User: What shape does this take?
Amino acid sequence: MVRLPPSLYQLLTQTHIGAGLLTGKLAQPTQTLRVTRATARAFGPQEWALLVERLAGWRSGLAGVLDVVAAARRRNDAVVAAVAPGEKQSDAPAAAAAEGAAAEATAS
Assistant: This one.
């Protein structure tokens, strides 16, 4: 068992639990902490390999997101190009509806 000054005990306990480095049961009246799980603090070859693997997964995930964004931009650019010059994209459906209504009126 390690004895710590109360101020250091509280600081270390809060920061380590908050960082997810350890979990345990804290008893304030006795100022004790019974550790139930602790995370390794060493960053060795296994941790580096795990980090490389996770980063590679993130990279491929982000590449997929970038592909989706690029496809959406291409679709948006195609829609904008299809809108008549001088019209806003939001005006296009209203203009088409007005033209349709005018065509129906002349046909009847």
Remarks:
- Residues 6-38 form one domain.
- The chain has two domains: 6-38, 45-94.
- DSSP finds three helices and two strands in the chain.
